Amino acid sequence: MNNEPRMLMKTIIILSTSLLLAGCSKQPPPAPIAADPASNSASAQPVPLLNPGSAVTGDMSNSPVDMTQTIRKFGTPASYFDQITRFPARKAVPRGARVFDRVPIQIDGMICLWGEVNADRMKIVFPEQVTGIPVKQAFETLYVYHATFCTPSKGMPVYELVFRYKDGSSVTNEIQCGADVLDWYAERDRPPAGPTSPNSKIAWLGTAVWPDGEQPLRFCLTALDNPHPSQEVTAIDLYSCKNEPAACIMAMTTGRAGLLR
C-alpha cells in the first residue's frame, strides 16, 4: 500500500496543530516544528488562581478514561505541546496525571471537534466526529475536562457526548456554551467567569504572557450523570454540533457521583 498520501495528510495536519494552541488544531503530529527565534519575546506560565491540579493521591475508584490511542489517531498528544514554539500559550496547559476538585484526570493530549469559526476564518478543519473511545465499565458519572476555541452565544450547543452501552442502547448528552463549557481564552478586563450549570465549574486557570499583556486561560470540568449506572458503557462518541465554537476535550474520568462541589 502506498503511504505517501497518508504522510502528506499528517504533514498538513501538523501545521494546523500549530495554529490551534494560539487558538485551534487537528490530528497527531509526526514530528516537532523547529524552534522559532522570534518567539522569545513571549512566554507562558501557569498561574494557580484556582486549583492548579495536584498529584494523584485521591480515591482511584474514579478512573481516568484511557484516551491515548484516540488522541494519536484524531488529536494532538500532550508530548507535542512544548514543541510548538510559535505560540506560548501551550506552555501553560497542564498535562499528565492531575486532580481537579477531587477528580483524578489523565491529560494525554487533546481532541478537537469541528467549529465554524475555525473552519471558515482560520481554515483549520477539525473532525466532525470522534467515535469509539473505549470505556468498558459501569459508572455513576463521567467527568469531562474541556473548553472551546472562540466565544459563541450562550446556550449554543457545542458538541454531543454519547454513552454507548453494551446492550446496544445509547444516551446523548448535549454540551452547551455558557452552561457547561467556555472559551479557553478568558476575559482580560475582569475575573474569569465560570460556567452557569451546577454540574460544571472552572477546574484550572492559567495565564499566557503576550507582548501586549497577560491572557487568562481556563478549562472547565463538567459532571455528566449516567442514567444507567449499573450497565457497562463500552465506548463514548463525540459529535460536533457544527456551530461557531470548536470543542477541545482534554480528558475524561469515570467514577462516583457528587465529586464536584
In short:
13% of the residues lie in helices and 37% in strands. The protein is mainly beta and 261 residues long.
Shape: globular
Find the count of extended strands (DSSP E, 2+ residues).
Answer: 14
- What proportion strand? 35-45%
Evaluate the radius of gyration.
Answer: 18 Å
Number of contiguous helices: 3
Mean of residue pLDDT values:
79
Terminal CA distance reads: 53 Å
Low-pLDDT parts are 1-60
Summarize the helix and strand pattern as letters: HEEHEEEEHEEEEEEEE
Q: Indicate the percent of residues in helices.
A: 10-25%
What does this structure look like?
The protein starts with a helix and ends in a 6-residue tail after the last strand. 13% of the residues lie in helices and 37% in strands. The chain is globular, with a radius of gyration of 18 Å. Residues 1-60 have low confidence and may be disordered. The protein is mainly beta. The strands form three sheets. Strands 1, 2, 3, 6, 8, 11, 12 and 14 form an eight-stranded antiparallel β-sheet that branches. The protein is built from three helices and 14 strands. The chain has one domain (4-26, 40-255).
Can you lay out the helices and strands and say which pair or pack?
Layout: H1 4-23, E1 43-45, E2 63-64, H2 68-74, E3 76-77, E4 96-100, E5 103-107, E6 109-112, H3 116-121, E7 129-137, E8 141-149, E9 157-165, E10 170-176, E11 200-210, E12 213-225, E13 233-240, E14 246-255
Antiparallel strand pairs: 1-11, 2-14, 3-6, 4-5, 6-14, 7-13, 8-12, 8-14, 9-10, 9-13, 11-12
